[in-house]
Design goal:
Length: 320
């Protein structure tokens, strides 16, 4: 799912509604690390194009940030001021701003409207209909970096990559010193991932899990990130409409217990990992024990780590 500059209001994690009931609300996290920078940019733009209160707005003039925020708030956007600022900074003119505002007010995810998402300090291209990288998944990146072996140019595989955000973040944090591969079943996600990963030297494949990969990768992967879908099928209706209506079900639905895709990954992971290589996967906190069991049965040495502030849970599984 990767870059820089500004960071949009990214969504709360929508994959664990059973553990976090607040995730059923269609809210988005506020702009955080670069809010001050965005505000300053908006003020500079306003200063460059002054208009007195007595001057009427023409049809060619964009809505003010205050007016935009009011419109978004009326549509149910919790962080309307932050979103209004981002829309104004992204739109290339009044007509585009109007179209973008209409899409957001109609319930389309902000990242789809903007065309990008902030993730681990990177700016990730996100097209409509593609899974939006979640802020909590930044913890998966941190856990992956701790598991990187001491080897030159480690092989990194981002499986179920979506936009490629995880792979991009890991390789960027490694200073580009890695051989990056990624795969996803969704053609739209693959197109996004190629835009995000090709500048980093990454190769992106379209297909079903390991079947998409070249056979030469077997047994060579030092770091395998697999952010598989893990929402139990019966919990899909509990997700916010932004996820249900605008993201592919294949990126959300983890089967009856949320672990169906993880079982498929675990069944082949050992053979694709290099000796000492590690698989990392995000899961719901209430699923972590079962997820760890799945990976232990696959012959891997397992550890569960978490960050209660995000909140986020990651299972790491190493081939010894």
């Amino acid at each position: 799912m990767r870059h820089h500059d500004t960071e949009p209001a990214t969504h709360r994690d929508l994959r664990d509604p059973a553990t976090h009931p607040e995730l059923r609300e269609p809210a988005a996290d506020p702009v955080s690390a670069q809010a001050a920078e965005l505000r300053a940019a908006a003020e500079l733009r306003a200063a460059a194009e002054p208009r007195t209160a007595a001057e009427p707005r023409t049809s060619a003039e964009p809505l003010s940030e205050t007016e935009l925020a009011a419109r978004l708030r009326a549509a149910g956007c919790v962080f309307a001021e932050d979103e209004a600022r981002l829309l104004r900074l992204t739109a290339r003119g009044p007509a585009e701003l109007e179209r973008m505002t209409g899409r957001r007010a109609a319930g389309e995810p902000l990242e789809h409207v903007l065309g990008w998402a902030g993730f681990d300090g990177l700016r990730i291209a996100v097209d409509p209909g593609v899974f939006v990288p979640r802020r909590r998944t930044e913890f998966l990146v941190r856990a992956a970096l701790e598991a990187v072996p001491d080897t030159a140019a480690p092989v990194v595989l981002d499986l179920c990559c979506g936009t490629g955000a995880v792979g991009a973040a890991v390789v960027t944090r490694l200073g580009g010193d890695a051989r990056l591969h990624a795969a996803d079943l969704d053609p739209a996600a693959v197109r996004c991932a190629r835009r995000n990963l090709h500048p980093l030297g990454g190769r992106v494949y379209e297909g079903d899990l390991f079947a998409a990969l070249p056979a030469a990768l077997r047994g060579t992967v030092h770091l395998l990130t697999a952010n598989v879908p893990y929402v139990p099928t019966d919990d899909i209706p509990l997700l916010p409409s932004e996820a249900r209506d605008h993201e592919p079900r294949t990126a959300l639905d983890g089967g009856p217990d949320g672990l169906a895709l993880l079982r498929r990954v675990a069944a082949e992971a050992y053979d694709w990992l290099a000796p000492g290589g590690t698989l990392l996967t995000e899961t719901g906190s209430h699923q972590s024990g079962a997820a760890a069991g799945v990976l232990r049965e696959a012959g891997l040495t397992v550890r569960v780590v978490s960050d209660p502030e995000l909140p986020a849970t990651v299972v790491t599984a190493t081939r010894r």
